[in-house]
Design brief:
Elements (H helix, E strand, L loop, with lengths): L4 E5 L6 E4 L6 H10 L8 E4 L10 H5 L7 E3 L3 H10 L4 H9 L10 H14 L5 E5 L5 E5 L16 H6 L2 H4 L11 E4 L8 E3 L2 E3 L4 H4 L4 E4 L1
Parallel strand pairs: 1-5, 2-3, 3-4, 6-7, 7-9
Antiparallel strand pairs: 2-10, 5-6, 8-9
Length: 218
């Protein structure tokens, strides 16, 4: 399993953005970054995971992890692909294909090799990013949830729940997770960015409706 936690020093960047589930929509992401006047030399983009599946530009989105201006946490789609292709988990491979992973098998042999190399690199993605902002705020980014009522760096938590859980958002829970100022998640599609307690959900269904949410952190 990948390292669960990773820290980022936000003072190293001029601007920091967090983007919702990209799901293979590379051109759409580039459009949003252009509109935001994102600067590859000074700014940072953090993804809530699910770089791939359902969209048509999956290899381009996977390649984002090689860029110095880009960070990501693991998404459940990314993990399914890794488990199925690299872990020889046939049940997970079937689950991944049913949920949009069939694009991989349509690639040329050359592109399949590139994708496999990128998936090997994706194995190192954290599940939870802790971002220390210049203003002293602590922002946590994970894919689906932080499955504890109190955040603590390196605290043991369920990896499955970090990647898959929808319990809090489905219950419309306004609870505050202690230990950090803001938590940003994707995974569960919402019509518009949703705030519940100190939790923000920003998967606005880009692959289905073209609405990709890009949040600039102050």
């Amino acid at each position: 399993m990948n390292n669960i936690y990773q820290k980022i020093d936000g003072s190293q960047y001029k601007n920091i953005y967090v983007v919702g589930d990209i799901h293979g929509c590379y051109d759409l992401l580039m459009e949003e970054l252009n509109l935001a006047r994102f600067d590859n030399n000074t700014d940072l983009l953090i993804s809530v995971g699910d770089l791939i599946d359902r969209g048509s530009q999956n290899l381009d989105c996977l390649n984002l992890i090689t860029q110095p201006w880009f960070k990501a946490v693991m998404g459940n789609h990314d993990q399914m692909a890794i488990d199925g292709l690299l872990g020889n988990n046939l049940d997970m491979l079937a689950c991944w294909i049913m949920n949009g992973g069939n694009w991989f098998f349509k690639l040329t042999d050359e592109d399949k090799a590139k994708a496999l190399d990128l998936f090997k690199a994706c194995k190192k993605l954290p599940l939870v990013l802790e971002l220390a902002m210049p203003n002293g705020k602590k922002v946590i980014v994970a894919h689906a949830d932080y499955p504890d009522n109190v955040y603590e760096f390196d605290k043991p938590v369920s990896s499955k729940d970090v990647l898959w859980s929808r319990d809090r958002i489905e219950n419309n829970s306004e609870m505050i997770i202690e230990g950090a100022d803001m938590f940003i998640f994707g995974h569960t599609p919402v019509r518009e960015p949703l705030k519940l307690g100190n939790r923000f959900y920003i998967d606005t269904g880009a692959v289905f409706n073209g609405n990709l949410t890009l949040v600039k952190l102050d």
